Amino acid sequence: MKLISTDKAFIYYMRDRADGKAHGIRFSRTAGATGFVSDAPTKTQSHPVPFAVYDNAVALPIRGELPPVLANALADLEEQYPEIHALLTGRITFEDALRS
User: What does each C-alpha distance from 51 to 20, 97, 99 come to in angstroms?
Assistant: First the structure.
């Protein structure tokens, strides 16, 4: 699921896990990327998505290793949403992702 906040300041990419929780990556226009786990499934999510577990935000483009929660979510989401990797590496901008 791709969710864009009404003010277009955040983009969430998330997917349900087998345990009924959702995990994903939140991109912020100003803070970068944050990996998260939410106790609620994706179908009930709206902005702001409540985080049960999360990484500290990392600036974009990402240099070096990914934080663990973000890396786990990326592994599960990047096939369905290839633009995530492009956002993380700086190949596309936040504005580009809003339009796609």
Answer: 14, 22, 25
Q: What is the mean pLDDT of residues 47-66?
A: 95
pLDDT (0 to 100) of residue 97: 96
Of the candidates 89, 12, 92, 83, the one whose C-alpha atom is nearest the C-alpha of residue 45 is 12
Q: Six-digit token pair at 31?
A: 């803070």
SS (H, E, C) the chain: CEEECCCCCEEEEEEECCCCCEEEEEEECCCEEEEEEECCCHHHCCCCCCCCEECCCECCCCCCCCCHHHHHHHHHHCCCCCHHHHHHHCCCCHHHHHHC
| pTM for the full predicted model | 0.95
Walk across the sheet containing 2-4 and list its strands.
2-4, 10-16, 22-28, 32-38, 53-54
